[in-house]
Amino acid sequence: MTNAISLRAGLVGFALSLGAAQALAAAADYEFQPLKVNVKNGPGSELAVRLVHKPSGKPVTGAVLFRTRLDMAPDNMADMTAKHEATPSSEPGVYRFKADLTMAGGWAFRMMAKVPGEKDTVEGVVVFQAKD
Length: 132
Ligand SMILES: [Cu+2]
Hints:
This protein has one helix at 2-27, and strands at 30-34, 38-40, 45-53, 58-59, 64-72, 77-81, 84-87, 94-99, 105-114, 122-131. The protein is of the alpha+beta class. The protein has a single domain (28-131), classed as Immunoglobulin-like (Sandwich). The strands form 2 sheets. Strands 1, 3, 4, 7 and 8 form a 5-stranded antiparallel beta sheet that branches. It has a 5-stranded mixed beta sheet with strand order 2-10-9-5-6, with helices on one face. The longest helix has 26 residues, at 2-27. Bound molecules: copper (II) ion. Copper (II) ion binds at residues 72, 75, 77, 80, 103, 105.
């Protein structure tokens, strides 16, 4: 009984990881990088990420970022989130946000992106360090 259950759980885990690996195949060609890791703690803090196509090293313009989330998971406070909104950026491949940070420390900025000409959704996490 116990063995049958753990075998089934094992198979489900295998299927999930296989699906995740396929979804990341093309998306793995892209990387989000922080422009500056250190940011100001407080309201209206400016965060900027650059989206790079790794094989060419070129910044990716025209991507649509969605399902963004800012949380303090890096400091074991995954439930602590911060409001943020996109702001205009004139630099190619750079995506800017204003965030109302409420605590100094590590903030993970998670996002998904639709990239022109890429059918897979790109997913990324950038960690910022907020300083008082
Ligand atoms: Cu916190």
